[in-house]
Amino acid sequence: MSGFLGFFKKRSASKDSSPAEKGKKESSGNKKPAPRSRNSSQNKSSKRPKQTGNRKSARQIQAVENWSIGQFQVAADPEKTRFHDFELPSELMHAIADQGFKYCTPIQAEVLGSTLTGRDAIGKAQTGTGKTAAFLISTIKQLVDTPAPDSRYLGEPRVVIIAPTRELALQIGNDAEALTKYLPLHVVTVVGGMDYEKQRKRISENYVDILVATPGRLLDYCERKDLFLDLVEIMVIDEADRMLDMGFIPQVRRIIRMTPRPGDRQTLLFSATFTDDVLRLGEQWTWNPVKVEIEPDSVATDTVEQKVYILSSEQKFPLLVNLINHHQLEKVIVFTNRRDQTRKLTEKLQRIGIKADQISGEVPQNKRLRTLENFRSGKISVLVATDVAGRGIHIDGISHVINYNLPEAPDDYIHRIGRTGRAGASGVSISFACEDDSFLIPDLEALLGDKLKKDYPPEELLVDPRKAKRS
Predict the structure, then answer these.
(1) Is the pLDDT at 333 greater than 60, yes or no?
(2) In this predicted structure, what is the pLDDT of residue 390?
(3) Distance CA 331, CA 322 (A)
(4) What is the rounded distance in angstroms from the CA atom of residue 61 to the CA atom of residue 46?
(5) What is the SS3 assignment for 178?
């Protein structure tokens, strides 16, 4: 479409208010329930949750009363944006302080500057840039500023956030709960591969303020009349490019059609890349959006030291074990390309006494969650994974990412190494290149726009630890 890029240019929110924004201004503090069709209202449960369901607990009240913004001091910096620079609720600022946030990342500053006024947004940002916190903070503030309708049914979320993978959805749900811990907002996460009835019970036990979901499971509950999306106020679509890659766009279209039209809801769409397909979706699903594009100085994060070891396939396992032992690595992710490689490598590491476990598509979801929690808490030091863990998993303190197999898709390399060096911390990425996959290096370097540092591993790191033990 001609003039499409101009369509995204920032404009004054006061000049270009959407129908949704105008409705908010006119009904501030006295919002009327939206009309419902007879069929949908007959299907909706009139049951109300327990009175305590949407109130602050005594613990929350005490925490809020014992805290003031004066306890969260952040010095003004002309080159940085503070969360204090936005008029955020005290309870939300308390949760932000608990997370250790002080200054906004570039995408947080850009997104919050526009979306807090109700503007739609299409954002492009690299993994690890803080986009999840950006859309959650914006969403939570607007939920606080605009009270829920007086007449409300169970199964009617005010905010829907969809993500392509279970792990990413669960991570977003955890982040949402952390940021709403001092607010009477109810967060529910529903994903495939986990107990259907338990998640259904969570939907029906309380009003749903923020719903985080994978597309398939969300449609399941909508088709069974457990969820209704006709009163959604804010729609967030995360990792839109990944949705395209995984073939989820038809499901997302069905979900979007169940929500109010663009302009009657706020829509935030995020993607790691801006392909023509992503931009077309943005045009269809948003109304007068602001386009936020944070271009990194380099494709890979500057906080990650990258190196490639040239070796034979037989030398990979001894090098991996020796790197872990010599550097006393306590939190490292090792990436493979296939499920069978993940399983076999994990078993070999466990046999030699290394605290390792795996996550891949063949591991049941509940087991994956336990493994991630064990990794987060330090019960295991090595997580062996396929690219199922490559996006959206943010675990603090990961010092090293090791590519046991070079990724076949160059973009996966960026998402793999993005698991370390996050939020300003430094990290190390080590890739093993053997006769089976070294031909992939030129494609990686083309994507990075720079040459990777390549070397042969030190001889002492190639000694087979299994033979050394026997001797």
Answers:
(1) yes
(2) 59
(3) 15
(4) 29
(5) helix
Which one-letter amino acid corresponds to residue 77?
D
- Nearest-angstrom CA–CA distance, 458 and 429: 17
pLDDT digits (tens, 9 = 90+) for 195-207: 899 999 999 999 9
The C-alpha angle with vertex 191 and arms to 189 and 192, in degrees rounded to 5, equals 160
Query: CA 176, 181, 185, 191 torsion: positive or negative?
Result: positive
The burial class, CB within 10 Å (0-12 / 13-18 / 19+), for 87 is: exposed
Dist CA 108 CA 234 (whole Å): 17
Its pTM stands at 0.72
Within the chain, which residue ranges are assigned CATH 3.40.50.300?
4-25+57-149+222-293, 304-470
Residue 82 CB partners (closer than 8 Å, separation 6+): 74, 76, 102, 103, 104
The alpha-helical segments, DSSP class H, found in 146-270 are: 166-179, 196-204, 215-223, 240-245, 249-258
Annotation: CATH topology of 304-470: Rossmann fold (3.40.50)
Q: Looking at domain 4-25+57-149+222-293, which of 3.40.50.300, 3.40.190.10, 3.20.20.140, 3.30.930.10 is its CATH number?
A: 3.40.50.300
- Closest Cα partner for 395 from 67, 167, 197? 167
pLDDT digits (tens, 9 = 90+) for 167-188: 889 999 999 999 999 999 999 9
pLDDT in tens, 21-71: 444 444 444 433 433 432 344 444 444 444 334 455 655 555 666 888 889
- CA-based nearest residue to 128, from 433, 458, 421, 450: 421
Neighbours of 136 (CB within 10 A): 24
DSSP structure string for 343-390: HHHHHHHHHTT--EEEE-TTS-HHHHHHHHHHHHHTS-SEEEE-GGGS
Q: Write down how long the chain is.
A: 471
Q: What are 289-304's pLDDT values in tens digits? A: 999 887 654 555 677 8
Average confidence score pLDDT of the chain: 84
